[in-house]
Design a protein that fits this description.
By secondary structure, this protein is an alpha+beta fold. The chain is about 20% helix and about 30% strand. The protein is built from 27 helices and 52 strands. Strands 13, 18, 21, 22, 23, 24, 25 and 28 form an 8-stranded mixed sheet that branches. Strands 1-2-10-7-8 form a 5-stranded antiparallel sheet, with no helix packed on it. The radius of gyration is 41 Å and the shape is flat.
Length: about 1100
Amino acid sequence: MADLPPNAGVTVPTVPMEVDATENNGENSNEPTAPTLESILPPLPGLESIAECVYRWEIPNWTQLKQQERVLSPEFQCGGHTWNILLFPNGNRTDSLSVFLNSVDASKAEKESRWHICVNFGLGICNPEDDKIHKTSTAQHRYTTVEQDWGFNHLIKLGMLTTPVDGFSRPLIEDDKTTIVAYVKIIKDESGVLWHNFQDYDSKKETGYVGLKNQGATCYMNSLLQSLYFTSYFRRATYEIPTENDDPVKSIPLALQRVFYNLQVSEKPVGTIELTKSFGWDTLDSFAQHDVQEFNRVLQDNLESKMKGTQAEGAIVKLFVGKMKSYIKCINVDFESSRIEDFYDIQLNVKGCKDLRESFVKYTEVETLEGDNKYFAEGFGLQDAKKGVTFERFPPMLHLQLKRFEYDMQRDAMVKINDRHEFPLVIDLDEFLADDADKSVKNRYHLHGVLVHSGDLHGGHYCAFIKPEKEDKWFKFDDDRVVPVTLREVLEDNFGGESPSSKPGKQFKRFTNAYMLVYIRETELDLILNPVSETDIPEHLRRRLEEERELYELRKKEKEESHLFLHVKLLTDEHIREHEGFDLCNFEDKSYAVTTLPVIKVKKDDTFGAFKEMLVEKLHLTPGQFRLWTMVGRQNKTVRPDVPIPDSENDKPIDSVREKHSKTSSELRLYLELPDPEILAAGKPPLFLPREEGPNNPNILIFLKYYNPYEAKMEYLGKVTIKSKSMKIQDLIPIALERKKLPVDTPVKLWEEVKPTMIDLLKPKNTFVQAELGDGDIICIQPDLSPKELEELKEPQLATIPNYFDSLLNRISIIFRAKIKDQHAKPDLELLLSKKMTYDTVAAKLAEKIEADPLKIRFSVHSPSTNRQQVVVRKGATTTLQEMLHSVFYSQFSNVLYYEILEINVSELEFKKYVKVTFISQQGKDQGPFNLLLLKTALVSDVIEALIPKLKPETGVKPADVRMIEVLHGRLFREYKPEDPISVIGDNANLFVETTDLGEPVAETDKVVTGIHFQREPQRGYGAPFKFVVKKEEKFAQAKLRLLQKIGMTEKDLLKIKVVVVPKQLLSIKLKQVEDDDVLYDIIDFAAGDMIGIDHPDRSARTVGGHEKGIKILN
């Protein structure tokens, strides 16, 4: 609300009031009590009150007060600031009492200043004799020079003021008297942005840092990138990767360098589109949210490979990689099995752990294997043993992922764990080192970053809290916004659990909590966080990125000022001469080469005469010896000169010229006409024949082209001014022959180029009026060849002008891309072909370029939606390129064809068939897939015979040892017999050949069960099923070791999988996780076809049943 003048004619005495914070507020009584400051404004969690007061404005004559629309109370002081109450006794355009707390100081501060004050306040109205009868509302507000007052437009209905309400015995206004009360607490703004509305907020100005733009769902990526950016050691290593000769589109190191550099020097939020493009991602990938930890690992793996052989090699390992040891040590005998592994991050439990230390304790706790769960030690048999994990070495920088997402057996689904889990600013991890580990370095770690997830399992938002420098403050990096924060916001607000409410006794569940923690070892703080200056950035990189930035700023400025300018495209005879296609030039049809025309940027309010003067200077024209024609689009989709712009329009703004002559276009297209060479040669004025407006104009402008059938080439002969429409078309022939330097008796034919699909033969003896020819029309002339001359042509199919234009119409640029990257090292190849070419001709044209046998080239159609090859093109004797490109219907046209070079002629595929099959060993290890080419009459036994020689020599299987199966959604769909013909196998069948030997003896009491892999839900199966031997009376504690060996996993992987019993029919039943004490033999219904299900993520990075795929960086 605006500042208001003091009141006049109203008595408004002020009564100060001292507040007793310990006053009984009636919590133990049913009787209403008088409100106090503390009862109205209880303490706000984490916020400090620095001044407080209660102000009472007693109104002795309400009727008199209502004569005014709005009234200001006398001023009062609180915390050294001046305030008053703004009251609308008749409502502020409402039927309710409106009351606001107004800052007097705000109106006196400079508008552009950063003056502000944060206030927690309550405003109420109460009975003049009894404070217990009141109506009060509370709010918090950040007062600024823009928002000078705040309050309530609807405190209470006006009709409820003079009658008792809410069970009170007396009204709020009694005997025409009432009291307005303000409860005020000035709150300390520790962060500087408390209750900020962030309108016109400038992150760089307020914090010195900038954020990252969100592309749709890339907040998870932004939070990690900010963390890596403020890891100065990592940033320096990234800058050290040589990128001088890198492709700016595909180079991930260059794209990351660009992001880091812009974060360092930019004043505005930085974009990441170039980075995600370098990953090989499309728009769809930018709208898919992924796991931060998974993205971190994939990105670091990629960068590690790019750093090899450079100055930055080993930087990631030195910074992030530690070592841990998994062991099983026998208690009663001297036997230990252990394995030391590298780790880049540590996944810690949240559930059941109150803080980070407890999570480490749980991670390293020792399990005793005894009783039925004894460990089988080689050479010692079953033994009591201790099993656990210890750390051999911690890295300088620790990435700790808190396991906020887990599988809930009762709900049979993944859920988010929002339990409270505390983490400290400093943690000592020496106690978790192995006894024999090097302890010369103190493993005392300082918190550097907290990556936070808000939301649930199915969606949410990521942000990061980071302390950029060793002694610096904490900041919140929330996509494009950076704000300073308090320690409470970093720690308490991200522990999870219950959130305290301002209302006593009430708490709310928090869905915002820490998901990933970044700690730095105390001894390496200075090294890792040593600030990066511009001089630390390689000169070549600085120069390149600064040029990019300057170009971006220039384009941005041009875009911002674009509404002030008009773009003029100027067509000259030289451009027409260089153009060999339809029309005089190609403005925008991307099916063909677009003509490069000069685009002149002109201010819209510049006069047309000034524009012509500029052309005289730039193009070295002679004033008065050129004329400008507007070019407009015709209904037949051609663009031709329409009318010359008269000198009478020289004083008009150029944009009004566009409005008049080309209103539907945002740009002005002009043709620059120079005098006819014949007129110039005569030397007699006028250079241009005078024009009359309207259809009665006698002279017209015609464009001439000449077609040479011997070279199948079209040539521009210039334009001709026809003095009178009554002239005959044949009058043009001498002019054309003279310009082409041909004998005057050369027999010719004339055609009108109407549009690409309409080339009309003209009758020379017709007049221009009879032929309906006008300004801008094109006449093509060619020799009239004799039968003998036709036989001498290199390309007789292009003997006439219509034939030539038909070939142009069917001309298409095709990009050929190798289907199998390793098979052919050639990059993408672009060829100009005809849509009417046959399969064999297309193959021959490609074979000539890649030096291959055209008979062995097979093509596949490209899908624009997936950017991948799809259906194989079937070869036919008459199959044309047009038909090849439309083998499958796609909503988007693609001019890409994939090719592969077969071992046999493509025509032989009429009698042969490719069978794609993967081999699986006893240990669940894959080989393949293999593409086997067999006769269509072959049997499954022939597939197996062809496969075995391709396997690794150590595999050592025979045809009798294996079977071939088809798998659908991770389950056995069909088992093929050796005598089955391969003709019954579908083209896209998912085939596996597996050994029939189970890898262990099967006793009479044993049962064999099918096992499947799935992700989260059994319906989301993937991979190949397997057979597993279930032994009577064997507990799962022993069985799981055999199971792990069967599927090619280690004991460490047990933390990542869940084993359940899956009913064959997959009814809506909750699946129970198999526990160590369970006996599989007893809980599986073998007769009903129950299966063992292993729930773990599909890391194949392929879509399974339409569900989300894993992160993959393609370049």
